[in-house]
Amino acid sequence: MNITLRTFKPEDFDTLYEIDQACYEPEVAYSKRELRAYLRFTGSDCLVAEAEGQIAGFCISARRNESGYIVTIDVLPQFRRHHLGTKLLNEIERRLAGNGVHEITLETATGNDSAVAFWTKHGYRNRGVKKNYYPGGRDAFAMSKTVPL
After folding, report:
1. Are 6 and 48 in contact (CB under 8 A)?
2. 110-142 pLDDT, tens per residue?
3. Could you give all domains of the chain from N- to C-terminal order, each with its CATH number?
4. Which is nearest to 40 in space by CA: 49, 50, 30?
5. What is the pTM of this model?
């Protein structure tokens, strides 16, 4: 599968919103207002992955000084298991490091075994649990990774 990575363009917004809605339960998926806010954060970056002529996934990050944060990484179900998430993550980490980030943090649901395995495989370590982080009282692991200079 040929995967192309590129920077977000404003005309991608509706497609990214639809992908986020497809990837997460309604109470967890971002509203249009939330998604726009993340894309407009100072220090935010959004990387888009295209495969088979369509947007197949994206990753949003934010940074402040030497700290980076993965807001979300979304890959449509039909494109999973093709290393698309890994390609998105590797490039967003490269961009963060290039902007002086030394540590990247994120949250992921404690009950999402595949997501926990993905993050662990890519060097993220569990730093604790955030109780009631998600709607419905679900907990999240706070995870982080030190980025080599």
Report:
1. yes
2. 999 999 999 999 999 999 999 999 888 899 999
3. 3-105 (3.40.630.30)
4. 30
5. 0.94
